[in-house]
Design a protein that fits this description.
The chain has 305 residues and is α/β, with parallel strands linked by helices. The chain contains 14 helices and seven strands. A five-stranded parallel beta sheet has the order 2-1-3-6-7. Strands 4-5 form a two-stranded antiparallel ribbon. Helix 2 crosses helix 8.
Length: 305
């Protein structure tokens, strides 16, 4: 065999082996193309759904729509439109409405309401703004090129070890970006005090805004008149975190729940002690799936009354 043919054959063999490895192993978790595809698709894809979820990182890390939709007898579509530090501004609430299938018989918006989501800093919706205002090239890349490019991203050594030997690696942050807008998350080992330090200062000059509450309640009232069922809940976290938020943020869940129900919203009460957090703020993957199942059952129950 000529040298040129040997080189070509070796190159083709290397390509085949690379493709085979990529097919056998999951997508790298620390993968810029995958992350871009996830957030750009969430923001710009023209999907319309029976159920949309809104809220901050406790939603995008805390709601699996696959686990949620299993509770329904009929086929429905649902998507998680949570963003980091998201707040219930008028623009964000309108954004959620655009992702709803207005022609469907079942139209549901589910809001995970945290103290931070009603603060001035939350209302800025900086992460959503970043992905809303990206260039057309970035949008094209995220929607059409990233699904291909992500398969050629290099692996971290820890990712290969974890995938091949199914080991729980110490100090390993697991993040799986799912196509329904959910990031399944875990930390090994978990530390439920990790997020506490930042939350001791996050509400400094950043208290719950009364106008944000009023705006949210008015939007729930409007949706109710349009035939959209609106469900609210407080995303579960640790007892220590909840105590800090209640004492420092100015959040009064009793008044918010009362106002929410008064305009036709439906509130779902949850027992936070049933769920496990990996950092004191966000739910472990297994607890996120459990929460999603509970929400699905509660919403099905509400429709069957």
């Amino acid at each position: 065999m000529k040298a040129k043919n040997k080189i070509l054959a070796s190159l083709l063999l290397a390509i085949v082996i690379s493709i085979a490895i990529k097919l056998l192993l999951p997508s790298p978790e620390q993968n810029r193309a995958l992350v871009d595809e996830f957030w750009i698709s969430k923001t710009h894809a023209n999907n319309r759904n029976n159920v949309v979820f809104g809220g901050d990182s406790r939603i995008y890390r805390g709601i699996s729509t696959k686990a949620f939709t299993k509770q329904f007898n009929s086929k429905i579509t649902a998507y998680n439109f949570g963003y980091s530090s998201a707040g219930f501004s008028k623009d964000y609430l309108n954004f959620l409405e655009t992702k709803l299938d207005s022609s469907a018989n079942l139209k549901v918006i589910v809001l995970g309401i945290t103290p931070h989501s009603l603060t001035p800093n939350g209302l800025l919706n900086e992460d959503l703004e970043i992905f809303t205002n990206i260039s057309n090239f970035k949008k094209y890349q995220g929607l059409y090129l990233s699904p291909i490019l992500k398969h050629f991203s290099p692996y971290q050594p820890s990712e290969l070890k974890n995938s091949l030997f199914k080991e729980d690696i110490p100090n390993y942050y697991q993040q799986k970006y799912n196509p329904d807008g959910w990031v399944a998350s875990n930390k090994i080992p978990g530390d439920t005090s990790e997020a506490i330090t930042s939350y001791l200062t996050v509400f400094n000059e950043n208290k719950v805004d009364e106008s944000a509450i009023n705006g949210l309640i008015q939007q729930v009232k409007y949706w109710n008149t349009k035939g959209v069922s609106v469900f609210g809940f407080r995303p579960p976290t640790t007892t220590e975190m909840r105590t800090i938020e209640d004492s420092l943020s100015g959040f009064n869940d009793e008044l918010i729940i009362l106002s929410f129900k008064k305009v036709g919203g439906k509130w779902i009460e949850l027992d936070s002690k049933k769920f496990k957090s990996y950092d004191g703020s966000h739910l472990r993957k297994e607890s996120a799936e459990e929460l999603s199942e509970i929400l699905g059952k509660e919403i099905v129950k509400a429709y069957n009354k």
